Amino acid sequence: MSSQLLKGKRGIIFGALDESSIAWKVAEKAFSEGAVFTLTNAPIAMRMGEINKLADKCNTIVIPADATSVEDIEKLITESMEKLGGKLDFILHSIGMSPNVRKNRGYTDLSYDFLMKTLDVSAISFHKIMQTAYKLDAMNEWGSIVGLSYIAAQRTFPSYSDMADAKSTLESIARSFGYHYGKHRKVRVNTISQSPTWTTAGSGVKGFDAFYAYADKLSPLGNASAESCADYCLFLFSDMSRMVTMQNLFNDGGFSSVGVSDEIMQLLMKE
Length: 271
Prior knowledge:
The protein is an alpha/beta fold. The chain has one domain (10-270): Rossmann fold. Helices cover 45% and strands 14% of the residues. The chain has helices at 22-32, 43-48, 51-57, 70-84, 99-102, 112-136, 163-185, 208-218, 226-237, 262-270, and strands at 10-14, 36-40, 88-93, 139-149, 188-194, 248-251. It has a 6-stranded parallel sheet with strand order 2-1-3-4-5-6, sandwiched between helices. Strand 4, helix 7 (163-185) and strand 5 form a beta-alpha-beta unit. The N and C termini lie far apart (48 Å).
């Protein structure tokens, strides 16, 4: 049952691709809680997904934008404010892509051209979005900006490759821009470190199915679902989290605080 947690709030949601996407779940839940928003993704990603179906469901529009292009972001934010009838209250950055991972380039054999693309798409775009919104004065006071991260920003997961560097950069940008945006307009900036999640992007990492099972056995609550992450996003968009900013917040069923679990020990003892 909806409590209209986000009634009257306006936003932009980046990165909804298909029904498995966390951004897709956020959009559905935000709509049910009274928010109005625009959807956006890169033109190439839109051709791969079903974002227009989501737009129809949420009574909104899709504005194509390359999140690495400041010109596209300016157009997106300006058109979103026109469509929604005012400044924004929330932005979700749910974007990540590594050409090195896609091309099976291991961490000790990275293409540096690919690495620059990974960083630009997955992390620097977060700064570009916030800097553009800052310059356009597009956010209302006490607004909320959220980026999706992963614990590989703090710990090594070999197959995650250069995406780990991108997530580390993303979290650093959240802290640094969070300070400036907080002083400027009381805008909050946070990242959510999510469990391994069966999304189109996540499942593309080598050995994802095995790691998903491992994380599920290590976490006392099990892996957090995409729906759970969406709930956390809505909390951060809402006025209930007004004093939370510059944080990386774990939504991982306890994975980040566990050294080893009974289930993992039992599996090792059988070997």
